[in-house]
Design goal:
By secondary structure, this protein is an alpha/beta fold. The chain is globular, with a radius of gyration of 15 Å. Strands 3-2-1-4-5 form a five-stranded parallel sheet, sandwiched between helices. About 35% of the residues lie in helices and about 20% in strands.
Length: about 150
């Protein structure tokens, strides 16, 4: 069974995230959208809110699950016996950052390789990021075109 972990903070989930998951669903038997928790980071939305946003967004996708974890993504992959990490790329700087993480993960799992699969975000969504959405929300701007309906608050 081909299972992929799509890790992130999803604070909040955006249409860019949606684009990646929607396009990846035919490639995998199951995709686990895994919300990583960082005790040093302050989130705009609680873990429960973010999980609910994602559940509602993908309610019609039978092969998409939502979970959360603390610690290293690679350790979470091993705990779930998953061999693939799914990541979206918006631009060249995303690639450089994600490449370094993917190569580190491969080194950390010499016996049980975890491959990172990169999908380019669709051009019409490549400018969207959770941090941009949070900034717009903070100042009362119109964020609705950047997020799934489930995030509209």
């Amino acid at each position: 069974m081909r299972v992929a972990i799509f890790p992130g903070s999803f604070d909040p989930i955006t249409l860019g995230h949606y684009d990646i998951v929607e396009r990846a669903t035919p490639l995998f038997d199951k995709i686990i959208i895994a919300i990583g928790q960082n005790s040093q980071k302050k989130y705009m939305f609680s873990l429960e809110q973010r999980m609910e946003f994602i559940r509602k967004t993908f309610k019609d996708f039978p092969n998409v699950e939502v979970d959360h974890f603390e610690g290293l993504t690679i350790d979470y992959c091993h705990s779930k016996n998953v061999s693939f990490i799914l990541r979206g790329l918006r631009n060249p700087s995303d690639f450089e950052f994600e490449k370094a993480i993917a190569q580190t993960n491969r080194e950390l799992t010499q016996d049980n390789k975890v491959e990172t699969i990169f999908l380019l975000t669709s051009a019409s969504k490549s400018f969207i990021s959770s941090s941009i959405v949070r900034e717009i929300l903070t100042f009362g701007g119109h964020y609705e075109l950047l997020v799934p309906d489930s995030v509209r608050i």
